[in-house]
TrEMBL record:
CDD domains: ALDH_DDALDH. InterPro entries: Ald_DH/histidinol_DH, Ald_DH_C, Ald_DH_CS_GLU, Ald_DH_N, Aldehyde_DH_dom, Aldehyde_DH_NAD(P). Residues 6-462 form the Aldehyde dehydrogenase domain. Belongs to the aldehyde dehydrogenase family. It holds the Pfam family Aldedh. This is Aldehyde dehydrogenase. Keywords: Oxidoreductase. It comes from the Bacteria. The active site is at E236. It comes from Patulibacter brassicae.
Length: 496
């Protein structure tokens, strides 16, 4: 008797209405799809980089042609604005172009002669071999960029991929499957499996490598489960990214950058500015200007490019966290310069909020909020700002604003996080040549750069042949005379 297919509803956060239903893949189905993917991967791996690139380039062109359709799908299931969705598409197009251009170079075999005395001059080859089957478990905030785009280098390396999108935003992933199928991707090489926790656990059990983006708590659970099969993982987790505004900063630029970097995608960005430390000399002026900018922003359902700046809260439990953080801050003496409450009416919206006079006794400064709030704290000097910025279990990104470029870079080097922007924020994500990853509990490994594709491969070192002697000096049997000669040689070589 056939098992009845379980369906999962998809909600539009901006309206609260159910817009679709998708089939859930249970553990048995995931295992079956994984087996098919492994079979398909064998032929995909044998294709040349040029052949793989042809498929991904066709997908890039498909995305460019179907940008409106992709944007509408993203907006409907995430509640983000048209412009936030368009930015996501632009980054995805860049991802395709970057990996098509760089993958072969990053994975080229490395050849050199070793200087190690016992094998002096032998040829060494280091090669990169795809793991086979990669599982990508994506988040709900960026269903294209932070879910599908992690699949692109994995595919270019010669792997098959199982993509498990967030159960909150499955429609974008299904559209990417259509995109790749129409672009010539062989059947079985890329597969979307929808579902919740059980589906995610099945993916971790079935694959050779896991790429996860999401909360620190869920990342820890993924890591624990992967440990049972000694499956390697790469984790991009939570953040509480700090901005430091020095007294000599360009105040207008800093305020505009703060508003955008904290409220882009309604603050639902892993690298959002989540807390700001401002030197006392300009604190009041900065808060006032930031409040003016934020108060003028429009919020609502996506209504076309340029229609609104701030969208909805995608994941239902998230708005409860945002409300709790704001209420806690206000109860402890902070003041809402603007905003501060959930918006009434249909859909899930929280007002863009600037909180002034905050401190580290408040959860809005110590816990990840992931919403449209900007807490601003007064500090005496840069040293205090750096100390407070580093007083966090997170270490994803940071930013510093100052008119002195050298000073800005010096401050950046003291911040304990994976990336720091000077007089900017967020935009380092666009630098695909450089690694993007977190310190502390913000993750393990990185995306982008050479490491962003090499992580999807095992390395193999091949040591070439040497002189074909009957017996090397270090072979059995040992003798006192030879052992003393070898010990003396090592001592003279390394003991000087």
């Amino acid at each position: 008797m056939a098992t009845e297919t379980q369906l999962m509803p998809v909600e539009a956060p901006a309206t609260g209405r159910t817009i679709d239903e998708v089939a859930v893949a249970g553990a048995a189905e995931v295992a079956e799809l994984a087996a098919r993917a492994r079979t398909a991967q064998v032929a995909w791996r044998e294709r040349s980089f040029r052949e793989r690139t042809a498929v991904l380039d066709a997908a890039r062109r498909w995305l460019a042609r179907n940008a409106d359709r992709m944007r509408e799908t993203i907006c409907r299931e995430t509640g983000k604005t048209d412009d936030d969705a368009q930015l996501e598409i632009a980054v995805a197009l860049q991802s395709f172009a970057f990996w098509s251009k760089r993958s072969e170079r990053y994975l080229a075999e490395e050849r050199f002669r070793t200087w190690a005395p016992m094998v002096l001059g032998r040829k060494v080859t280091v090669r990169y071999d795809p793991y086979g089957l990669v599982g990508v478990i994506g988040p709900w905030n960026y269903p294209l960029v932070n879910a599908f785009c992690d699949c692109v280098p994995a595919l270019m390396a010669g792997n098959a991929v199982l993509l498990k999108p967030s159960e909150v935003t499955p429609l974008t992933a299904l559209l990417t499957a259509e995109m790749l199928a129409e672009s010539g991707m062989p059947e079985g090489v890329f597969t979307v499996v929808n579902g919740g926790r059980e589906t995610g656990e099945a993916v971790v059990d079935a694959v050779d490598y896991v790429m996860f983006t999401g909360s620190t708590a869920t990342g820890q659970a993924v890591m624990r489960r992967a440990a049972d099969t000694v499956t390697p993982v790469s984790l991009e987790l939570g953040g509480k990214d700090a901005m430091i505004v020095c007294a000599d900063a360009n105040l207008e630029r800093a305020a505009n950058a703060a508003a955008f970097s904290a409220l882009c995608n309604s603050g639902q960005v892993c690298i959002s500015v989540e807390r700001i430390y401002v030197e006392d000399a300009i604190y009041d002026r900065f808060v006032a200007r930031l409040g003016e900018i934020v108060q003028g922003l429009r919020q609502g359902e996506a209504g076309g490019p340029g229609s609104v700046e701030v969208g909805a809260i995608t994941h239902p439990p998230q708005i409860e966290i945002i409300e709790r953080h704001v209420r806690d801050a206000l109860d402890k003496g902070a003041r809402a310069v603007t905003g501060g409450a959930r918006r009434s009416g249909p859909g899930r919206f929280f007002e863009p909020t600037v909180l002034a006079d905050v401190d580290h006794s408040m959860s809005c400064m110590t816990e990840e909020t992931f919403g449209p709030t900007i807490p601003v704290m007064r500090v005496a000097d840069v040293d205090e700002a750096i100390r407070l910025a580093n007083d966090s279990p997170y270490g994803l990104q940071g930013s510093v604003f100052t008119s002195d470029a050298a000073k800005g870079e010096a401050i950046a080097r003291r911040m304990e996080c994976g990336a720091v922007c000077v007089n900017d924020a967020l935009v380092n994500y666009m630098v695909f040549d450089a690694p993007m990853g977190g310190w502390k509990t913000s993750g393990i490994g990185s995306r982008h750069g050479a490491g962003g594709i090499r992580k999807y491969c095992r390395t193999q070192t091949i040591l070439g042949t040497g002189p074909q002697l009957k017996r090397d000096v270090h072979h059995f049997p040992y003798s006192p005379r030879v052992s003393k000669l070898l010990a003396g040689f090592v001592g003279r070589l390394y003991g000087r």
